[in-house]
Structures are given as structure tokens and as C-alpha cells.
Amino acid sequence: MSKFLLVIGGPTASGKTGLAIRLAKHFNTAIVSADSRQLFQEMRIGTARPTAEELAQAPHYLIGSHSISEGYSVGQYEADALRALQLIFAHHDYAVLVGGSGLYINAVCQGLDHFPPVSAGVQEALQAVFESEGLAPLQQELQELDPAYYQEVDRSNPHRLIRALSIIRSSGQPFSSFRKKQKSQRPFTPIYLQLQRPREELYSRIDQRVEQMLEEGLEMEARSLFAHRHHTALQTVGYQELFDYFGGRHDLSTAVELVKRNSRRYAKRQMTWFRRDGHWKLIGPDDWEVALQFISMAAEEGLSIHQPFHKEGQVQALAWDKNGQPSNRGRRFVFKGGSTSVIQQLDKGPAGSLLLHQLSLLTIDEKEAHLLLPADAQGASGWDRQHPGCPPPKYDAPLPEPLPWSHWRRA
User: Fold this and answer.
1) Which of 128, 252, 270, 378 sits 20 to 30 Å CA-CA off 188?
2) From CA 235, how far away is CA 400, in angstroms rounded?
3) Which reaction does it catalyse (predicted)?
4) Chain centroid, CA 375 distance in Å
5) pLDDT > 60? residue 330
6) Structural domain tally of the chain?
7) Is residue 285 part of a domain?
8) pLDDT tens digits, 395-406
């Protein structure tokens, strides 16, 4: 019997925990966390670890399982997560992996990249720069030497900055150049689901979560960890800002606003990471039936999403079948100098409906978005639109061919 890993991703505060628990209960299985901070025992409030009530609803692995005093790498996480999945798959055909750490998710689903050896002297020199001058010089060097990785890395995490720069200094090549290897073979098939919310809604949820953390005792938790603030695990949004408050760099009100701001920035970096992957089926918070439909078609028919960005300007989403052939496709275009997207669905059927749903969520933050259906779907032209209040396009003839790619740009 085939084994399937339901991978739940998305930015912080998007609702991943709730969806993961609901899926675990639906498929009568267990959850493995892919959060690089929730696995530490001492960091309960600031990492928004699932509550005791939530943990009781389904078995969880790698939640509060380690201490911040332990050295813990992504390689160790990969081994621990695969062992947990082996235990789950011994009794179940489905398992759930949930978290916002893209690196941890990729480690489980694809395996880690192999990097050249780094001398201790290089790492020590970078660590000395961080301890004496802070994050700024590390961020600046990485931006200059590897702008691609700079755009997606958690720039507030000194461990990841030092790791990337030590590889760059040792090899003379960008860190990102070592991240294009073949995927590792796994005894399971990942099915990727990413929660998508309008940006303003997400940012509001982030602000509300920060206020809730403070009510639950985040300041006291951070004070209890202040003496350990140099540990890698604590170089984390929600703790660093309060450590600076304890050290007299700013007042509490400023610290809280910085936590909110930096959390929003972190969410934006997470979305950039997941968008780069190009294999996530986007779902909204109320799209339970859509999620189940996609899981069913992925498991039974081999359906998958491929959403590469094309430098010509189009965003093309493809639905692939189990033989690796495109079974359905759609395109999203964005006008030059405007915010109106025109989505064209080229095929019909269940896969086409899922793909159409995918493309519509890509326009969730746009002022206007028009959907163009095949001519035979709704009479001669057929139309719908993503957002109310926008006048629909009017066509009295079959849909025209898309304009040349030079007339469009990527969002």
C-alpha cells in the first residue's frame, strides 16, 4: 500500500495547526512538526506551540522534544522526523507534516543538499563578527555575495547567515548554487497544501497573536530565557525584541511593535520561500472540501501542481498526472502598470476546477481579477470574477488569443 505525507505549509498565523489536526483526525493518523522552534521545551509561548487541548486531539512528534541547550541541526531534524514517520507509516497510510520552516519541510520531503567542508576558522571568524557587530554586517555580506538566498533566508537568524557565509567564503561560490541537487528517494509521496489568506487579514492575525502571547506571559517567558539569549534557538522573532527591551535599548511598547513588525516581515519571507517551490496547492481557511478533493486526486490519480515562474511574465500553473504528463493547465497574467489579472482556464473537469481554484487564490490581494472560461463552458464567452464590485469583461465572440508575452509582466 502506498504511503502519503500530507504537508501543511504557510506563513505564521495562517491557521496551519488547526488544519493539521483536522486532517490527522480525518485520516486517523499522527502529526510531525516542521517548526524549527516549537521543538524546544523552553519556548512555548513565543513560538505559538499548540495548546495542551490541541495536542490531545492527535499524536504529535517533535513538539517540545529538545532543550535550547542542546546543539540541534537540520540534519538531526531530518533523521528524527524520518524515524517518526517510519513509526507512523507502520500503522497508517497517511501522516501529516506541518510547519512554517521551509528548510525543515524540504529536508523531510526532498533530503538535504550536500555542501563543501568548512574550516572551523571560517565559522569562528563569522561568529566573532556577529558577537561584536551584530547581524547587519552578515546581512550585508550575504546580500552582496548571494542575493538569491538573501531574499528567502530568515535574515534575523544568525545561525543560517553564518552557515551560508561560511560556505560562500570556503568555496568561493554562492550558497544557493549548492541547492539544486537531485531529490532523495523517500518511501512516501508528499501532497503539498499551503494556507493562503489575504495579506491584510494575515497581518491582522499576526498582530492579534502577538497580543495574545503577551497576555499568556511572553514577557515572563522571555525573562526566564534572558541569560541564555546567545543560544541559536533564541535568535528568534518575539524573543530578540524583548531581550533588547530588558537590556535597555528601548521600552516595552516599542518592543511589542517591533515583534509585530518583524513577525509580518518573517511571514513575507515564508511566502517567498513557498512561492519559489512551485508545488503547493493553495487553499483558503474554509476550503476543507477542496483540500480533501485534491488529496484524493493526488493519492488516487497522481495529480500534482507545478507552478513555475516564467521570465517572459506569465505565471503558469500545471496539473500533472501520475505519468508525469500535463493533464490540465491555466495561466495568470498581470497587466503592465496595473493590478488587474486575467486568468485563463484552458481545460475543464475536476483537475481544471482545482487549477482554477489555485489561480484564483493567486489574485487574492489584487483589486481586480477576471476569470475567462473556455468558450463552450458558459455559452459563447462565459465569465466570472474573483472580487465583487469589478465590472466583468464583455465578449460577444469566442475568447481572443492571449497577447504576446511582451505585453505582460509577472506580478
Assistant:
1) 270
2) 53
3) adenosine(37) in tRNA + dimethylallyl diphosphate = N(6)-dimethylallyladenosine(37) in tRNA + diphosphate
4) 36
5) no
6) 3
7) no
8) 333 333 333 323
**Predicted local confidence at residue 374, as pLDDT:** 45
Q: 67-95: string of b/e by CB count within 10 Å (b at 16+)? A: ebeeebebeebbebbbebbeebbeebebb
Question: Does 363 carry a binding-site annotation?
Answer: no
C-alpha span between 188 and 178 (Å, rounded): 25
43-47, 83-87, 290-294, 339-343: the lowest-pLDDT one = 339-343
Please provide the DSSP assignment of 186-221 as one string.
-SSEEEEEEE---HHHHHHHHHHHHHHHHHHTHHHH
Integer CA distances (angstroms), 221 to 22, 105, 248, in order = 29, 27, 18
User: Would you state the pLDDT for residue 227?
Assistant: 95
The verdict on whether residue 12 carries a ligand-binding annotation is: yes
pLDDT higher than 70, residue 326:
no
Q: Determine the straight-line distance between the first and last CA of the chain, rounded to whole angstroms.
A: 42
What pTM value is reported for the model? 0.78
What is the pLDDT of the chain when averaged over all its residues?
81
331 pLDDT exceeds 60? no
DSSP H or E stretch at residue 149: helix 147-152
What residues are paired with 344 via a beta bridge? 331, 372
Lowest mean pLDDT across 54-63, 128-137, 316-325:
316-325
> Does 11 carry a binding-site annotation?
yes
232 is known to lie in a ligand binding site: no
Q: Name the maximum alpha-carbon separation found in the chain.
A: 71
The residues, ordered by sequence, that sit 6+ positions from 336 with a Cβ below 8 Å of its Cβ are 407, 408, 409
Are residues 192 and 73 both part of a single domain? yes
Cell numbers for 203: 497581518
C-beta of residue 24 within 8 angstroms of C-beta of residue 31: yes
Query: According to the annotation, is 291 in a ligand binding site?
Result: no
- Within a domain: 96: yes
Tell whether 17 is in a known binding site. yes
> Nearest 5°: phi and psi at 30?
-120, 170
Query: Which residues are 332's β-sheet partners?
Result: 315, 343
Domain of residue 221 covers: 4-113+181-277
State the pLDDT at residue 180: 62
pLDDT beyond 50 at 176: yes
Domain CATH number, residue 380: 3.40.630
Angle between the N-to-C axes of helices 136-145 and 158-171, in degrees from 0 to 180, rounded to the nearest 10: 40
Query: Do residues 11 and 76 share a domain?
Result: yes
Residue 348: band (very low, low, confident or very high) from pLDDT cuts 50, 70, 90? low
